[in-house]
What we know:
Blueprint: E1 2-6, H1 12-20, E2 24-29, H2 35-46, E3 50-55, H3 63-76, E4 79-82, E5 94-97, E6 101-105, H4 111-116, E7 119-124, H5 127-142, E8 153-155, H6 159-168, E9 173-181, H7 184-195, E10 199-206, E11 215-216, E12 226-230, E13 234-238, H8 244-248, E14 252-257, H9 260-275, H10 278-299
Parallel strand pairs: 2-3, 3-4, 9-10, 10-11
Antiparallel strand pairs: 1-7, 2-5, 5-6, 6-7, 8-14, 9-12, 12-13, 13-14
Amino acid sequence: MKLLIQPRDGSAPLIAAIKKATKSIELVIFRFNRDDIERALTAAVARGVQVHALIAHTNQGGSGRLRKLEQRLLAAGATVDRTGDDFIRYHSKFMIVDRTTLLVLGYNYTRQDVTKSRSFGIVTKNRKTVQEAIKLFEADCARRPYVAAGPLLVSPENARAQLSAFISKAKTQLLIYDPKVSDIRMIRLLKERAKAGVEVRIIGKVSPRGDDLVHQKYPGHRLHVRAIVRDGRHAFVGSQSLRKLELDKRREVGVFVKGATIVKELIATFETDWAETGLGKEQEEQRHEAVETATLAAAAPAPA
């Protein structure tokens, strides 16, 4: 597995994956305005790679752009399908290269997401995970029911149950990136973990019913990812927030991560971002004061 971090990595890893394709590229698109990625896809078609795009039937304010993208990709020789309208949104973002490599993304193929937003992506060659993504892609292209039976977290099929179980197992810490934590049951679960002594910190927004959870606004330009790190050893990265709509009413996709290197990178990124929040700066000042007090106490002469 490999972790992609935005805005650090930009579109280069996506373009590199497209350029490496020798047989096929299958991708799901919700928003798209990156000319460099479109050129890479067009070039892939030209060299004989079968490019198959599943494009959302709608998004907020950008449906016209999606229809134009469909026409351009069709003209280039790609296969294009449009999602059904059975869900409010088809909001997942993933790409399958040569049916051997899967990229699960928290971000769209847009300038805003790739260059100005905090987000993550996971690259995996795990066979079961890749096969499950293929099964999901084919089902959604054909507009037929999908039955979750593998390692992917797919809304609305299994994401709520899997994320609930994941959070419930926390023993010491939960570090969360989420644009809007608002689901009643998920907030109740987070509060239960906090009451049990688990350190819960959230970068993002929380609805009023969860206002007593420790949370801070993302200090950068924009937050566009959903990620959870549990006990410093396990993580989740995906497109679904802890929000009822995204758990129960929309197509969303995520994946669990166990790799020590990736989890450490996620923690380091979170702590760097947290240090720039108002509470993070306040905590750092308190630490400095505590160190200074301890240093002065140690240097003071012993009483006669």
